[in-house]
Each structure stands twice: as structure tokens, then as C-alpha cells.
Amino acid sequence: MRIVLAPMEGLADAHLRRLITAQGGYDWVVSEFVRVVDRLYPDRVLYGDCPELAQGGRTDSGTPLRVQLLGSDPAAMAANALRVVELGSYGVDINFGCPSKTVNRRAGGAVMLKEPESLYRVVSAIRAALPKSVMVSAKMRLGFDDTSLMLDNAAAIESAGAGELTVHARTRMQGYAPPAHWEELGRIRQHINIPLIANGDICSVEDYHRCVAISGTPDVMLGRGAVRLPFLASQIRANQTQTTPWVQLAPLLVHFWQELSTTLSSKDRVGRIKQWVNYLRQAHPEAEVLWHSIRLEKCTQTIDGLLPRLESVAQGSCATAKQL
To answer: What pTM was estimated for this model as a whole?
Structure first.
């Protein structure tokens, strides 16, 4: 069993990566993608996108970070891959799954799944640029419009030299709409010889076991399920199906809010705490109450006064939470 924290653009920034990995259970974390166009970025850009590089390529809890690159220019991708490894990245991951229309219009992400040869060119260029001991992995979807090229894409990535493949069990056209098609992962696993990491709709311990049974791989990448349940990885490892009590989550929210003040503007700070609470409320009734208290709030001072009360609220029931 290997458990990886997924790259989630606009959601799993360095702050949330630090918080989630601190709860334990992760073998490594993949960064939000670094968009590569046609040149080698200066170090300051790479450090800005992936601040963990400045501390040995690890989060504060010691979880290794693998930088993810997105782009279709083989030479530029290879140059940036070499540099992030020199700066401390735990290997390099390549994004062939981003569904963003903006990214796809610029020949990056999931649109490359229309042409397996394009995947091969990028992976092989990166593999050739790096020492053999450095892991090159890729993440893809089942396809763009459909799954007709699914096996061809997986084979191209493997034959180009990737050592691991993560597959989000949906096509680009399916977006994030349920369900994830884990049965297709089983087909891919039988078609390739490198390790397959399953991704998509793993939001509980029960989901993990169902995914393993259907896909045939024990290795998973947790995305939005980990944002809703920050203790999910450690719960999977312990086979603990009970929901984490709110008393353990409330202090994390307070810490997250305080940490955001070190790097973000007031507006962005308010937006980020709302974003996370919106995810938490999908699994925790207490967060639903909190959401209704802050969803229209724009003032940091109000939230400053509200969040410390979570500690006392966490000791009670949802009825107590209404005091917010």
C-alpha cells in the first residue's frame, strides 16, 4: 500500500499540503502543476510554486514532495525537470490530466491524450535528462472524449521510461462527475508492467477497499477526499472507519487560518478558509453550521473572533455549534 496526496490546482497549495501531510499516512505529495511553456524557469519561480524545495523537498512533517510539470515542449519540460530535481524534488511527475479549457487550448494537460505520441515525446525527453535513479511518473485520465486511446496512452507513457502511472478514473469530458470508473483501471493495470496508482472518488476507508477490489492495485492517490477528511490516509492504514471527531478538526482550522496570514492578502485569506470549510461540510455537520456563519463574510476581523470559539464548540454537539 502506497498513499499519495494529489496535486489539486487552486486547492492543495503549500499551506494545505503542510497541514494534511502533518496528519500522517502519506508516502509523498505531488505539487500543484508548474506550467512550462518554452523556457527554463529561474529558481525563484520554482521556489515560489513549490516552497518545499527550500527545505530539502519535504513538507514540515517530512513528507517528500514530487514537483509536477505541465507542458508539451519536450526540451523545456526536460530542462525544468532537471532543475527541480537539482533543487530537491522527489522525482518528477508529468501532468497529462488537467481538464482546464485554458490549459487544453495551449496544448497542455488532458488534450495531449488525443495523441499518444505527444506523451511519449515529453516523457522520453524528461527521462533522458535525469539520472536513472530519479523517478519519473505521470498522471493521466482515461481519455479526452472517450476511452478509445486509454491503453495506447498508458503504453506510450511506460515505453517512454516512466516508472509509475497514476490514473484519474474519468475522461476529460466527464470532469469530476461521479462515478469514477475504477473498472477501467483494472484494464490498464493488466496492460502495463509499471506500478499503477488509482485516483478518483476515494473519500473513505470503505471507498479505498472497493477501489482496490475493482482496480486490483493497493496504491492510491487521495484528492478531494483528503481535503474533506484530513486524517483519511492514516485511517486507511489503520483500517479505521469511524469519522474523525470535530474536536480534532477544529484546531486544524484555527491553525490554517493563522498560517494563511503569513503569505496571503486579507481577501485571499478569507477565500481560502471558506473554500476549505466548504469541503469539510460535505463530511462534518459542524462544518455545515460554520459554513453558514462565514460564507458571506468578507472581514478578517470577524473570522478572527469566530474561529477561536471552535475549540469550545468542538466539545459539544451541532446544537452547540449553532452558537456560532
So the answer is: 0.93
Euclidean distance between CA atoms 305 and 297, whole angstroms? 12
* pLDDT at residue 322 is higher than 60: no
Q: How far apart are CA 175 and CA 198, in angstroms?
A: 16
Q: Which are the contacts of 318, defined by CB distance < 8 A and separation ≥ 6?
A: 285, 286, 289
The domain locations on the chain are 3-238, 246-321
The distance from CA 239 to its chain's CA centroid, rounded to whole angstroms, is: 22
9 pLDDT above the threshold of 60? yes
CATH number of 3-238: 3.20.20.70
Encoded amino acid at 103, one letter = V
End-to-end CA distance of the chain: 41
Q: Is 318 a catalytic residue?
A: no
HSE of 114 in the Cβ direction (CA atoms, 13 Å)? 14
Residue 63 is given by DSSP the state: -
Catalytic residue among 50, 98, 203, 211: 98
